[in-house]
Amino acid sequence: MKDVYYLFPLQFLNYFVITWNYRVIAQSHYFSIAASDICIAALNFTIIRRVSKADGRLGQIGYALGGALGSLLATWATTKVYGA
Q1: By the 8 A CB rule, do 1 and 54 touch?
Q2: For residue 66, what pLDDT is reported?
Q3: How many domains are there within the chain?
Q4: Which one, of 20, 14, 19, lies nearest residue 63 by Cα?
Q5: pLDDT single digits (tens) 10-69
Q6: Which has the least CB within 10 A, 51, 77, 81, 83?
Q7: The domain containing residue 58 runs over which residues?
């Protein structure tokens, strides 16, 4: 169960930042591109370390749900900040 508490928020944040990154690339916001790229690299390093230690289905479920919900929230939030 503890894997869910680590993997869900990490993957949520990772997909949130990746979605933010795609949207700012499309709109050429250079500072935001650099900031989101740095966040993605740091998150990926952390996720690799956590996933390698995880075991069990609950961790996988938390990991998958975190990604889906992170993308959805980021799409909504970036639409509010940057427009359509």
Answers
A1: no
A2: 93
A3: 1
A4: 14
A5: 999 999 999 999 999 999 999 999 999 999 999 999 998 888 888 888 888 999 999 999
A6: 83
A7: 2-82
Q: Residue 55: left if φ>0, alpha if ψ -120 to 50, beta else—which one?
A: beta
User: How is residue 77 written in tokens?
Assistant: 């939030």
- Using CB atoms within 10 Å of the CB of residue 34, give its burial: 0 to 12 exposed, 13 to 18 middle, 19+ buried: exposed
Q: How far is residue 80's CA from residue 78's CA, in Å, rounded to a whole number?
A: 5
Name the 3-class secondary structure at 51. helix
For 11-21, the pLDDT digits (tens) are 999 999 999 99
Query: What is the C-alpha separation between 42 and 60, in angstroms, rounded?
Result: 21
Confidence check: pLDDT of 84 > 80: no
